[in-house]
Q: What sequence folds into this?
C-alpha cells in the first residue's frame, strides 16, 4: 500500500478568492497530490484547504502554499472571528494509509525546518510533532494571537522550533504538526449572543470552565491548595469549543473541533449541544461542516437518528447520508454535497467502478455489445446483488409493518446484513471486468526476449489467478446472502414472501453462473493444486446453494 497523508492548512484569507486560488494553484502544480476541498469563510476570514498524496509530494505542496500565502496575505490588516497568528495559521499533517503517526510527525518536522530556513517564518511544532508537551496544544501556542506574538516570541520559553525568533509583521508566525483526523464542526443557534454561545461551548467542551464562587461569570475564581484555578470539566471528551457571532449568517455558533470522533462522534456532539442549549432557552437550528468528514461519521449519524425513531437502519448508503444531513441540519446555511465533503468519495477512483454507475439500459447495451466484457462473471455478481436486494427489501418492509412495532430491531439487523452483501456484490460487478482486463493487459506485454517471455507468462498466470478468485468470492457472497433471504421467507412480511423467493432464485443463478467462470479460468492455471482446491470448494458451495434454494422455495410456496 502506498503511503498517503492528508494536509489541512488554514490560511488567514476567506474573502478574496483570487488570493485563495493563487495559493491552491501552488498545491495543484505539484505532481502526486490531489486537492480535495477548499472551504472559505467570510466572517472568520479564513480558508481551510484539504489535499492528499504521498508524503514527500504533500510537504512540497504545503511549502509552496505557505510561501505563496506569506507573499499575498498581509496579517497587519487581517480581521476575522477565528483565532489566528499567521498567514498560514496552522498546517497539520494527518496519516491516512500505510504510514504511522510517528512517520507523519517526521515529515511535519521536515516541512517546519524548510519553512523556517527558506522563508524566514517562525514555526512552532504541535501535537505529535512536538516533543515538549507543555507547548504541544495549538490553543496554548496561539494564545495572544497575531497581535500578542510580537512580545510572546521574545520570551525564552516561546522561542520558535524553527526559523527566526521574530514575529513577521506581514506573514506572522505559523504552527506545523501531525495529528489524528479532526472534524471541524459548527452548530448554529437561534441567538446573536456570543456570551450565551460561549456558555454552551463551556458546558460541552472537555476543558470546561473555571469554577467561580457565586456568579459563574463574575464570581471569584476558586483555587486549589496550590493556588491553581479549579476547573469544571465539560460533558464531551475530545472536544474543543468556543462561541462566536457570524455576521455573514446573522447568528451565533458553537465552533467545535472534534479531535477523536470515535470518542465523541458528530451526532453525539450535536445532540449534547441541543440539550445544553435547550436548558438555556436557546434552540439549535442546524450545523455546518468545515472541510471534510469521513464517510463512517455520516453513516453512523444516519443510523443513530433512525434508531431513535425505531426505524430500520438497513437502508442504502445514500439514504443514510440523507438522514444524517437532514437530522444534523448540515444544509441549513448552504447546500451539502456529499460528493464534495466526504473524503472517501473524493479519493474514489471512479474509473474502477464504471459499470455500476451506468443506468439499466446502458448496462444492458454494454453487455450486448461486441466487447467480451462485461460478461458472465459481472452479470452473475449483479444478479446476486439484485437477489439480496429483494431479501433486504422484505426485511425493511417487515421492520415497518403495522402491528410488528416491537420487532423493528430484529428486521433492521437483517436489513443491515443484506445491505452489506449487496454492497460487496456491486463491487464485484466491476471487479470481474477489471480482472478480465488485467488478463488482456498481461497478454499484451512484450515477449521478444527470454526474460520478457518469462515475465509475460508470470503476469498472465497472476492475472488469471485473480480472475478465478473474483467469481469464487461472488459464489461465497451469494451463498452467504441466502441466510437473509431464507430468514425473510420464514419470518418476514407474508405479503412479500414471493419477493424472497425470487431473491433465492437470483442467488442460486448467481452462484452457478460465477462457478462457470471459476472453472473456465481455473483451467488456464499452471498451479493445479490451487485450481483443484478452488473447484472442490466451488462444488460444495454450488450443492449447498441448490439445497438451500429448494428449502426457501418450499417455504415460499407453502405460504402462497
A:
Amino acid at each position: 500500500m502506498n503511503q498517503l497523508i492528508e494536509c489541512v492548512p488554514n490560511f488567514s484569507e476567506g474573502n478574496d478568492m483570487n488570493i485563495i486560488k493563487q495559493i491552491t494553484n501552488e498545491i495543484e502544480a505539484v505532481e502526486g497530490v490531489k486537492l480535495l476541498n477548499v472551504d472559505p469563510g467570510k466572517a472568520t476570514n479564513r480558508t481551510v484547504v484539504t489535499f492528499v498524496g504521498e508524503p514527500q509530494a504533500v510537504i512540497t505542496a504545503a511549502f509552496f502554499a505557505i510561501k505563496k500565502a506569506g507573499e499575498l496575505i498581509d496579517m497587519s490588516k487581517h480581521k476575522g472571528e477565528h483565532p489566528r497568528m499567521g498567514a498560514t495559521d496552522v498546517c497539520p499533517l494527518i496519516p491516512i494509509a500505510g504510514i504511522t503517526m510517528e512517520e507523519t510527525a517526521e515529515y511535519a518536522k521536515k516541512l517546519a525546518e524548510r519553512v523556517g530556513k527558506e522563508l524566514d517564518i517562525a514555526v512552532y511544532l504541535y501535537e505529535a510533532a512536538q516533543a515538549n508537551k507543555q507547548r504541544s496544544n495549538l490553543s496554548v501556542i496561539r494564545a495572544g494571537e497575531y497581535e500578542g506574538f510580537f512580545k510572546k516570541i521574545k520570551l525564552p520559553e516561546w522561542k520558535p522550533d524553527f526559523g527566526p525568533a521574530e514575529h513577521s509583521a506581514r506573514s506572522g508566525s505559523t504552527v506545523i504538526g501531525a495529528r489524528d483526523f479532526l472534524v471541524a464542526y459548527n452548530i448554529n443557534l437561534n441567538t446573536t449572543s456570543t456570551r450565551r454561545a460561549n456558555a454552551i461551548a463551556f458546558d460541552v467542551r472537555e476543558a470546561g470552565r473555571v469554577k467561580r464562587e457565586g456568579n459563574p461569570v463574575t464570581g471569584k475564581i476558586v483555587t486549589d491548595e496550590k493556588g491553581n484555578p479549579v476547573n469544571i470539566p465539560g460533558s464531551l471528551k475530545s472536544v474543543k469549543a468556543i462561541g462566536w457571532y457570524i455576521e455573514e449568517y446573522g447568528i451565533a455558533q458553537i465552533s467545535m473541533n472534534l479531535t477523536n470522533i470515535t470518542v465523541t462522534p458528530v451526532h453525539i456532539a450535536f445532540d449534547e449541544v441541543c440539550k445544553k442549549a435547550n436548558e438555556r432557552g436557546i434552540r439549535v437550528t442546524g450545523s455546518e461542516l468545515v472541510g471534510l468528514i469521513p464517510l463512517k461519521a455520516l453513516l453512523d449519524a444516519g443510523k443513530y437518528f433512525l434508531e431513535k425513531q425505531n426505524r430500520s437502519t438497513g437502508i442504502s448508503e445514500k439514504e443514510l447520508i440523507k438522514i444524517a444531513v437532514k437530522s444534523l441540519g448540515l444544509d441549513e446555511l448552504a447546500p451539502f454535497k456529499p460528493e464534495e465533503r466526504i473524503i472517501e468519495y473524493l479519493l474514489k477512483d471512479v474509473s474502477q467502478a464504471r459499470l455500476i454507475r451506468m443506468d439499466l439500459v446502458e448496462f444492458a447495451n454494454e453487455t450486448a455489445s461486441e466487447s467480451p466484457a462485461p460478461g458472465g462473471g459481472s452479470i452473475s455478481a449483479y444478479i446476486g446483488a439484485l437477489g439480496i436486494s429483494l431479501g433486504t427489501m422484505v426485511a425493511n418492509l417487515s421492520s415497518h409493518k403495522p402491528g410488528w412495532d416491537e420487532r423493528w430491531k430484529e428486521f433492521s439487523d437483517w436489513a443491515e446484513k443484506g445491505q452489506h452483501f449487496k454492497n460487496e456484490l456491486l463491487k464485484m460487478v466491476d471487479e470481474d471486468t477489471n480482472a478480465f482486463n488485467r488478463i488482456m493487459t498481461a497478454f499484451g506485454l512484450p515477449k521478444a526476449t527470454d526474460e520478457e517471455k518469462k515475465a509475460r507468462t508470470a503476469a498472465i498466470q497472476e492475472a488469471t489467478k485473480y480472475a478465478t478468485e473474483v467469481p469464487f468470492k461472488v459464489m461465497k457472497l451469494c451463498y452467504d446472502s441466502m441466510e437473509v433471504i431464507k430468514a425473510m421467507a420464514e419470518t418476514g412480511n407474508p405479503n412479500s414472501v414471493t419477493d424472497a423467493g425470487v431473491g433465492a432464485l437470483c442467488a442460486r443463478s448467481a452462484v452457478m453462473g460465477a462457478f462457470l467462470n471459476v472453472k473456465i479460468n481455473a483451467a488456464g492455471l499452471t498451479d493445479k493444486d490451487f485450481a483443484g482446491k478452488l473447484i472442490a470448494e466451488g462444488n460444495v458451495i454450488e450443492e449447498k446453494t441448490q439445497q438451500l434454494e429448494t428449502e426457501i422455495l418450499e417455504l415460499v410456496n407453502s405460504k402462497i
Summary: Residues 450-491 form the longest helix (42 residues). The chain has 17 helices and 13 strands.
